[in-house]
């Protein structure tokens, strides 16, 4: 039984997190308790598979975390998203897209999907996108006669695009962890000049799956609008312009609301795809561009800057605290022989690589109900990543599969995080059951994307291979 202590450590962490304890302190505290237990049992002469020497690597791990240039992209991308939110760029963008598509049957739904995609590319945070879209677009959709199921489902689904549309915070963190796991796997296989995988590779690999999901969402909204016109009726453009307070020509609003954020996204992603900048450097471009947009919209004052910097510091501190706790957890897990245990379990699974991948994807999907993507990235991926990559799985494909999997998990009733975010800003007249029913078609679309990625890995690997 003592050889299963690593699994007990993992189960204890999950149980403590479900009880609501802080993530970073739970990871570090539980790991230290088990390390103390292992040392105590060794002193009593109990043959525990515990090697305390692993803990000697903790100072180097801490130094590596704090000097990691890749992780510098996290505060800068967060600052970019916060500045865009505070400067009301999202509101102007939604008004422009609503007026452009609103006169079409299903047009408001299409506008929500497109704006959600652009917001996902701007903020990279699921919760921020879902809440923003819920506050800005849901009242208009309901007022214009949209089915509550279609309205809430499309908002939830497009909000989760923040997981997969670059520059996503999830892809930044996942890329850093997978890079370490890939090098670890190659060294374990005797490759002393290991290849690397970067955050930029994941950004490029996520482009085709992300855009295909956007197209699938738009097709679903369009087909629903034509089959059930009462669920997504067309709106009168003049009435919409009066309601939104934009009388006169549509083009000035389009120029003001659509062009600047699109140019900002092109500058960020284009600099990465063109090889002009690393993701960290591109994040600085994004933060600077967001500040310039806020200045152009005359939304910048000392109070707004203070709130933006404070919110960025909060998120960044949370990420790094969790990363430090996860580093300690990982060392203790390895000290108990957890790595060898996971490898042995995967090798004993029927189906080889396919069986192991299915099990990992199922576990990550279920953990997505109780853990945020940060915890899963820092706790689960370092454990299973090296083992899967030693089975000759492409690291970019694995990263995109994990991202889409988590995106689907965050959308699935009854525990999906996106559902809770939207419920918090939805009027009481819309029942929770309407939200649950509304997301089901989008969940099926995302499961279809997972299946397509499994059958055609080139959807994720082809573009990085040519760039």
Helix count, per DSSP? 22
State which percent range the strand residues make up. Answer: under 5%
Estimate the global geometry from the Cα principal axes. globular
Q: What is the average per-residue confidence, as pLDDT, rounded to a whole number?
A: 84
Number of strands: 0
The helix fraction, in percent, is: over 70%
SSE inventory with pairings:
Blueprint: H1 5-18, H2 23-43, H3 58-66, H4 73-86, H5 89-101, H6 107-123, H7 126-143, H8 148-159, H9 169-188, H10 199-227, H11 237-244, H12 251-257, H13 259-273, H14 279-296, H15 302-335, H16 338-348, H17 352-367, H18 373-389, H19 395-409, H20 417-423, H21 432-455, H22 458-466
Helix pairs in contact: 1-2, 2-15, 3-15, 4-14, 4-15, 5-6, 5-11, 5-12, 6-7, 6-8, 6-10, 7-8, 7-20, 8-21, 9-10, 9-18, 9-19, 10-19, 10-21, 10-22, 13-14, 15-18, 16-18, 17-18, 17-19, 19-21
């Amino acid at each position: 039984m003592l050889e299963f202590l690593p699994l007990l450590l993992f189960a204890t962490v999950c149980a403590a997190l479900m009880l609501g304890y802080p993530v970073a302190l739970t990871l570090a505290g539980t790991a230290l308790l088990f390390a103390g237990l292992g040392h105590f049992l060794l002193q009593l002469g109990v043959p525990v598979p515990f090697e305390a020497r692993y803990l000697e690597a903790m100072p180097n791990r801490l130094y590596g975390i704090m000097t990691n240039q890749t992780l510098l992209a996290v505060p800068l991308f967060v600052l970019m998203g916060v500045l865009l939110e505070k400067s009301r760029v999202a509101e102007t963008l939604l008004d422009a897209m609503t007026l452009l598509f609103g006169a079409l049957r299903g047009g408001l739904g299409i506008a929500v999907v497109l704006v959600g995609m652009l917001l996902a590319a701007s903020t990279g945070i699921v919760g921020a996108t879902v809440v923003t879209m819920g506050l800005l677009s849901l009242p208009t959709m309901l007022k214009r006669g949209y089915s509550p199921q279609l309205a809430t489902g499309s908002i939830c689904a497009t909000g989760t695009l923040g997981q997969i549309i670059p520059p996503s915070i999830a892809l930044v963190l996942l890329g850093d962890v997978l890079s370490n796991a890939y090098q670890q796997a190659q060294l374990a296989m005797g490759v002393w000049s290991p290849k690397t995988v970067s955050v930029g590779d994941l950004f490029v690999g996520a482009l085709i799956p992300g855009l295909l999901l956007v197209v699938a969402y738009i097709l679903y909204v369009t087909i629903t609008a034509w089959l059930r016109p009462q669920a997504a009726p067309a709106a009168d453009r003049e009435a919409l312009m009066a309601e939104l307070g934009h009388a006169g020509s549509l083009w000035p609003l389009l120029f003001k609301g659509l062009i600047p954020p699109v140019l900002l996204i092109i500058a960020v992603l284009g600099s990465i795809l063109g090889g002009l900048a690393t993701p960290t450097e591109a994040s600085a471009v994004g933060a600077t561009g967001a500040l310039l947009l806020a200045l152009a919209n005359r939304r910048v004052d000392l109070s707004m800057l203070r709130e933006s910097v404070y919110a960025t510091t909060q998120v960044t501190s949370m990420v790094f605290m969790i990363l430090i706790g996860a580093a300690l957890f990982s060392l203790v897990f390895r000290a108990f022989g957890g790595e060898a245990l996971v490898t042995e379990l995967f090798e004993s699974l029927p189906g080889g690589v396919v069986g192991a991948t299915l099990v990992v994807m199922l576990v990550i999907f279920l953990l997505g109900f109780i853990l945020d993507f940060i915890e899963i990235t820092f706790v689960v991926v370092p454990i299973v990543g090296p083992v899967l990559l030693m089975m000759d799985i492409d690291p970019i494909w694995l990263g995109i599969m994990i991202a889409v999997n988590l995106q689907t998990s965050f959308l699935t009733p009854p525990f999906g995080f996106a559902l809770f975010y939207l419920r918090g800003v939805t009027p009481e007249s819309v029942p929770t059951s309407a939200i649950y029913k509304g997301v089901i078609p989008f969940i099926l679309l995302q499961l279809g994307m997972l299946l397509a990625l499994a059958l055609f890995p080139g959807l994720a690997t082809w573009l990085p291979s040519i760039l």
